[in-house]
Amino acid sequence: MLQLALSVVLIAGVTYLMARRAAIVPGRLQYAGEIAYGGVRNSIAREIIGAEHYLKFVPYLFALFMFVAVNNYFGIVPLIQLPTFSRSGYAYGLAILTWLLYNGAGIWKHGLIGYLKHTCIPAGVKGPVLLLIVPLEFLSNILVRPVTLALRLFANMFAGHLLLVLFAVGGEYLIIESPSLVNVFGGVLAWVMFFAVSVLELLVMFLQAYVFTLLTAMYVGGALADEH
């Protein structure tokens, strides 16, 4: 919980500094902020949601991307070294917010009955097959989506954290607690793997923030679309 609160303070502080002295010719901090914001705004929101409605969702998507990224990168910060979303409750809580957003957007656009029809009945499908399709579509689009969205983030962060702990503590045990020629070699190899996995985790942490934001935009775009 402290990490969540700290991430909000960090994001608010850094984005304020990025925008405080906005200029036509940006400085390095403003330029970095424009790249991050522009990536979410143009490459995710506008491309996926569409030009008509995307601006309404950019603040949430940008905040979501920054929030997930910062909390993921806590996993490599010394003395913290725990990605917040390696605890499943936080990942599912964030997925519920996205679930409320895209379902709310769909109901706003189509009305409750129209949205359920839009979500559960694929275009062009008619006849008795709907008895099979409608429950499956409802299960997939309404009930399962937030579960898979959260599980993807949680599982990646949790697995990466376990690997880092395994290689770090395992190497320490082999070298210090049970020294021998073979064990010392194995311990050194474990520490090499620790640093290699740490570099890989830098990429995974970013990708998970990007994918979570991308899927949120896809769900919003699908809820707002005129056809399934």
Q: Roughly how many Å is the radius of gyration? A: 22 Å
The DSSP helix count reads 7
Basic shape: flat
Order of helices and strands: HHHHHHH
Task: Please summarize what this structure is.
With 228 residues, the protein is an all-alpha fold. It is built from seven helices and no strands.
Task: Describe the protein's architecture and organization.
With 228 residues, the protein is mainly α. The chain is built from seven helices and no strands. The protein is flat, with a radius of gyration of 22 Å.
What's the SSE blueprint?
Layout: H1 2-20, H2 28-49, H3 54-73, H4 88-110, H5 112-120, H6 130-177, H7 181-224
Helix pairs in contact: 1-2, 1-3, 2-3, 2-7, 3-7, 4-5, 4-6, 4-7, 6-7
Which properties best describe this structure?
0% strand, single chain, mainly alpha, 228 residues
